[in-house]
Amino acid sequence: MNNNEIIQKTADHIKTLFSGEGSGHDWWHIFRVWNNAKLISKDIPDANLFIVELGALLHDIADYKFHNGDETIGGKTAAKWLTDLGVDESSINAVVHIVDNVSYKGGGKNMMKSIEGKIVQDADRLDAIGAIGIARTFAYGGAKGNEIYNPDIAPKLNMSKEEYKKSKSTQINHFHEKLLLLKDLFNTDSAKKIAQHRHDYMKDYLDEFIAEWNGEK
Ligand code: NI
């Protein structure tokens, strides 16, 4: 199997696993991250696109029904899939590094070492902000039963990983607690540029939201 066939088979597999999921981690999230990753990679000729694409396609594999607090399950699941496709060991290790380190849980420091991983991480974060990020935030809040907004609940900043996992909040607060902070965490210059525009768009949206909430517009 050549590299393109491996990527296509992986995309088909992930599409089957993730289709129809309603909390914002569905196949189309993976699809957008895959596209974002390819877009960012255009400015980074040293990046190995095969690793970038497989990392993007497999980055949320742990979120598919397996998760029981085992943070290595994603990497193991990805490794098994790629081994079955006959992918070489060093490529598998590179993809597993991405899958194991992609996610942001608040307060943690970035363990992503490879440029391919930094690209995938940026691509994933881009999908959390901007117009798409707004849609996903409210879809996720609906799935969790959270309020859209409650002015009596203040945003909680500087949370530890444990507090972040436990805390119940509103979706508007989620912008302040996480999404508006992502702008400073991008690794690559090309993602930073895209992120700035998406960030400004979210801020405009929040200004509009609060103005409408208060009956000012
Ligand atoms: Ni993701």
How does this model look, in words?
The protein is built from ten helices and no strands. With 217 residues, it is mainly alpha-helical. Helix 2 crosses helix 6. The longest helix is centred in the C-terminal third of the chain and has 25 residues. The chain is globular and about 60 Å long. 33% of the residues are buried. The model has no long low-confidence stretch (mean pLDDT 90). It binds nickel (II) ion.
Order of helices and strands: HHHHHHHHHH
Q: How large is the radius of gyration?
A: 18 Å
- Secondary structure tally, helices: 10
Coarse morphology: globular
Distance between the termini: 59 Å
What would you call the structural class? mainly alpha
The percent range for helix content is 55-70%
Low-confidence stretches: none
What small ligands are held by the chains? nickel (II) ion
Reported for the largest beta sheet, the result is: none
Strand content is under 5%
Tally of extended strands? 0
Can you lay out the helices and strands and say which pair or pack?
Layout: H1 3-18, H2 27-41, H3 49-58, H4 73-84, H5 89-101, H6 115-126, H7 130-144, H8 161-166, H9 171-177, H10 189-213
The chain binds nickel (II) ion (NI).
Question: What is the compact description of this entry?
Answer:
It contains 10 helices and no strands.
